Amino acid sequence: MIKTTAETVLAAAAAHAASFRKRLDSLPQHARKTHGDMVQIFREPLPAHGGDAHGVIDELVTKAEPGLQFSAGRRFFAWVIGSSHPAGVAADWLTSAWGQNAGNHIAAPAAAAVETIAAEWLLQLLGLPRQSSIGFVTGATVANFTCLAAARGEVLRQAGWDADAQGLFGAPPVTVVIGDDAHATVFSALQFLGLGHDRVTRVATDDQGRIIPAAFATALAGVSGPCIVILQAGQINTGGFDPFAEIIPLAKAKGAWVHVDGAFGLWAAAAPARRALCSGVALADSWATDGHKWLQAPYDSGFAIVRDEVAHRRAMTVAASYLPLTAEGERDPSHYVPELSRRARGFAVWAIIKTLGESGIAEMVERNCRVAARVAEILAREAGVRIGNDVVLNQAIARFGADEPPERGDQITADTIAMVQKEGTCYVGSARWRGRLVMRFSVSGGETTEDDGERSAAAIIACYRKALNGA
Ligand SMILES: *Cc1c(COP(=O)(O)O)cnc(C)c1O
């Protein structure tokens, strides 16, 4: 048996990765195999004996590639999935190769330090209060969880209850106020925290999924005692933003903790021409956002941002006698996240921000928004196609057969989506919006251009015409 060295197996992986990225654009933009196919491809008995690492990596590539989705490409529009910037991927490889455990600053001095610096940069990019602390988590789901844990602890502490120590048994009730079109994962976070995904006060939203201020004021009027308000920057279908400047002061007047889920939408603040959408967002107490969506960090990467560092740390600190005590100025990454041992996520974030810079990030966000608007404009010119949202950000939703009876419209929309996914110029998704099926078109590829948008729009229209004729 050949004994592979670290050097050869790492070089082989790099060569495979570069080759994959090079071929990406010229292939049909969809996975060639289904999940079921892939289970068959990978299924084999537990290996009784090991194999050569180089051979294993070659086999992994051969087996996995047919089942890879094209989210790292330029025309993947089904969900807001960033395209894993090469600089971030390279830094992420090093992160793995270095094998750092970013739990604390002694186990990983560089990893802990780079998070400090990347956190300062992130707060500047997003226009958030500079004293805020950031936990480098797996994604916005855990960021929402982390921020809401800090919120829960703080609103109860102010009511004289130590939830971190005593839990919720016998605690004063907490009112949670949330918009009707909040993301599903926010409700999951409430579930994990014992706050319940149904035991919330839901507030009516408008046709863009934004909280209606009058409904918000009514919901808040009856509130007394501990209260958490959850707002949104970037609704998943419409890209809509809650009217922060108008409603956050109402919540603050009630002593509520205001949390904002801005998984991708918060990045509007990084682009001058879109920044107004985030107006007032910095008045909140905590913010969840993703690195692996619009910043193009490789998966997994998210940020739990909390204005009050003490509330953040109270909710997350792991105390054990064998863990080093933090002296002044030493940052333990584990103080801000639910995990102890974890990946040094800061390296990739640092590398991407260094590579793109503030202007590169602004340009990318703005370009993605322009692509979404351009696609919507082209689609809207076609008879029977209707855009279902104001395209203010990177999101467009389209209805096909819009003048047909609703059931027939659903069918034509479903057929169009299926045909686009098969045709391969681009990959789009679907959703139900206000009870009806729509095509979702989310633009978040780091390299996606207006030309990609125009090609994709033309392919979508060609598929729609076929779907209309029952082809
Ligand atoms: C993607 C998304 C989430 C969840 O983020 P993950 O990174 O998938 O955990 C939450 N809220 C919104 C608005 C999102 O778009």
The portion of residues forming beta strands comes to 5-15%
> What is the number of helical segments per DSSP (H or I, 4+ residues)?
14
Q: CATH H level of the domain at 91-352: which superfamily?
A: Type I PLP-dependent aspartate aminotransferase-like (Major domain)
Average pLDDT confidence is 95
Poorly predicted residue ranges: none
As laid out across the biggest beta sheet, the strand order is 1-7-6-5-4-2-3
Number of strands: 11
CATH class identity of the domain at 91-352 = Alpha Beta
Describe the protein's architecture and organization.
The chain has helices at about 5-25, 35-40, 55-65, 85-100, 110-125, 140-160, 165, 185-190, 215-220, 245-255, 310-315, 345-380, 405-425, 450-470, and strands at about 135, 175-180, 200-205, 225-230, 255-260, 285-290, 300-305, 385, 395-400, 430-435, 435-440. The protein contains 14 helices and eleven strands. The termini are far apart. The strands form two sheets. The protein has a seven-stranded mixed β-sheet with strand order 1-7-6-5-4-2-3, sandwiched between helices. The protein is an alpha/beta fold. Helices cover about 40% and strands about 10% of the residues. Among the domains are: about 5-70; about 90-350, Aspartate Aminotransferase, domain 2. The structure holds pyridoxal-5'-phosphate. Pyridoxal-5'-phosphate binds near residues 141 and 302. Pyridoxal-5'-phosphate binds near residues 140, 183, 185 and 261.
